[in-house]
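Q: What residues go here?
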C-alpha cells in the first residue's frame, strides 16, 4: 500500500515535470516560427525618419522610435495610421496587413516624410 503511493507520487511528479517542460518549451518554438525579418524599425533622429523608405512583407509591424529631444509624430498621408505625439524614446507601432506604398509625415514638422512599402 505504502509502496504503491510512492510510485503514484513519483509518476505524478514526472507527468507534472513533463507538462511543465512542454509548456516552457512551446513559446520558444512559437518565437522561432515568427520570421523576425517581418518586423522593422524606423528611428527618428535629427528630424529625419531613417531609413526614409523601408520595404516589409505583408503582416509586418513597423515600430518608430523618437530619438530626438523634440516631439514628433508619424501620420499616414492617406489616414491609414496616426501616432500620438512621441516624446524622446517613445515608440509607435503599426502592423501592415495590406500590400501597398504608404507615405507618412510628422504632423509637427510636415517636411519630415517617409515611406513604407509593403509587398
Ligand atoms: Cu517632427
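A:
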Amino acid at each position: 500500500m505504502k509502496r504503491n503511493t510512492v510510485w503514484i507520487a513519483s509518476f505524478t511528479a514526472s507527468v507534472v515535470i513533463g507538462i511543465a517542460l512542454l509548456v516552457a518549451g512551446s513559446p520558444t518554438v512559437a518565437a522561432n516560427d515568427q520570421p523576425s525579418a517581418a518586423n522593422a524599425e524606423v528611428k527618428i533622429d535629427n528630424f529625419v525618419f531613417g531609413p526614409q523608405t523601408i520595404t516589409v512583407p505583408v503582416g509586418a509591424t513597423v515600430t518608430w522610435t523618437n530619438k530626438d529631444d523634440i516631439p514628433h509624430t508619424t501620420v499616414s498621408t492617406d489616414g491609414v495610421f496616426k501616432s500620438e505625439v512621441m516624446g524622446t524614446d517613445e515608440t509607435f507601432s503599426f502592423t501592415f496587413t495590406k500590400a501597398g506604398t504608404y507615405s507618412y509625415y510628422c504632423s509637427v514638422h510636415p517636411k519630415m516624410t517617409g515611406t513604407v512599402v509593403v509587398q
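A: Context that may help when evaluating the design: The first helix runs from residue 2 to 33. Residues 72, 106, 108-109, 112 surround copper (II) ion (CB under 6 Å).
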